[in-house]
């Protein structure tokens, strides 16, 4: 009988924090600036420059630790991790090894009907390195230090995950918690959330871990899934052939859908960690922890419970709306204005989602205001505009955040309630379409739809379709 294998996975997740300035200096952390413009003597590692810790970094790290059920270390400190690489200007990185800010936490994930806790071993603060830019034309590498000194937290899980599905559920849960806290935008494509995957395989039933490899360069959930499947197959193949898995760091190439070895642990450098001499330890008092805890926002789990109590909307809608904090905020703000949760939910779930998909947008990129969505709902409910006009107006609201009341007025889109005008249009349509009239009288219900369509066209879409339908039936007996 063929051997059955189990995959064992642990993650190291790096998250760039949403502070305006870097961890040890006052340089901007904004993404996308011209190379080397957000730099100073501290973050470029000039001799004699001294770091000063950004308090907001500690508070964001504590907030994430508390939300992930971790114990906060009352006295934590920074350590120097020594290594030589062109994107690392000081030739060391300030990180935390011995006394990280948070330990022993967990997050709960759901895959299908299964709930599971993924334990968090520890979480530490550190500074990011710069970025090497490879110029293939000149066959050179340039270095951009804008990212150097951007604050990171690294979240190290226990090896509790067993498949790509669980890994993605864990990453989505972490991303959601961190976005709700406002501690990071967690954009994988911009590198503000990055995951390294530690993976090994073992025979089903075995309690001993296999030899693990670490995979880097994963910047999308799809790439992570593919890398896990690819590495699992590679390791099983080696074991089936009687070969050993080498403990090494591998780089995933998503275009080729394969990985290659970067360095083995045998020649991995000794980082020679020692306490960072330029920074004092951080003493975290009970009062400080309580102050951070009291500012924690309502997270998704509590939001779902409250939506069930406060708003009469289906569980499915609530789950979709709360997946992203910005969508949940939009829903709550528009509902507070028009007090019509089900209608707000429908506009967000149907038209907003459709347009987001068309434009390849994330909820965080939505630019229309809750006031204008609420106004559009009121206009539709009052019968001032009909549903097809409302959809067209919403496209303008979505793209340019126009005021729907002014736009409807300026464009003359109000529904015509003048029965005389409507009757005249209907008489003309009946006269112009004798075949459809005779089909309808002969029992073909579909023919009525064609006459309604013609009338709406004649009224430039500004009639109430229900009213048109009713009057047509009356006029045709």
What does this structure look like?
The structure is a single chain. The chain has 477 residues and is of the alpha+beta class. It has 15 helices and 16 strands. It folds into three domains: 284 residues, no CATH class; 114 residues, no CATH class; 57 residues, Orthogonal Bundle (Arc Repressor Mutant, subunit A). Helices cover 40% and strands 20% of the residues. The strands form four sheets. The protein has a nine-stranded mixed beta sheet with strand order 2-6-7-10-1-11-12-13-14. The protein has a three-stranded antiparallel beta sheet with strand order 5-4-15, with no helix packed on it. Strands 3-16 form a two-stranded antiparallel ribbon. Helix 2 runs antiparallel to helix 3, helix 7 crosses helix 8 and helix 14 packs across helix 15. The model has no long low-confidence stretch (mean pLDDT 89).
Topology:
Elements: E1 5-16, H1 55-67, E2 71-72, E3 75-76, E4 79-82, E5 92-95, E6 102-111, E7 114-127, E8 131-135, E9 140-144, E10 151-157, H2 164-181, E11 193-203, E12 213-216, H3 221-240, E13 248-253, E14 258-264, E15 274-275, E16 282-283, H4 286-294, H5 300-310, H6 315-322, H7 325-338, H8 341-359, H9 370-381, H10 387-400, H11 404-411, H12 419-432, H13 434-441, H14 446-458, H15 465-475
Parallel strand pairs: 12-13
Antiparallel strand pairs: 1-10, 1-11, 2-6, 3-16, 4-5, 4-15, 6-7, 7-10, 8-9, 11-12, 13-14
Helix pairs in contact: 2-3, 5-6, 6-8, 7-8, 7-9, 9-10, 12-14, 13-14, 14-15
Rg, rounded, reads: 30 Å
* Secondary structure tally, helices: 15
Shape: elongated
Widest sheet: strand order? 2-6-7-10-1-11-12-13-14
* Main sheet specs: 9 strands, mixed
Tell me the structural class: alpha+beta
- What is the terminal-to-terminal distance? 77 Å
Count of all domains = 3
Provide mean pLDDT, rounded: 89
Helicity range of the residues? 40-55%
Which residue ranges are poorly predicted, with pLDDT under 50 across at least 5 consecutive positions?
A: none
Strand content: 15-25%
Q: How many runs of DSSP E, i.e. beta strands?
A: 16
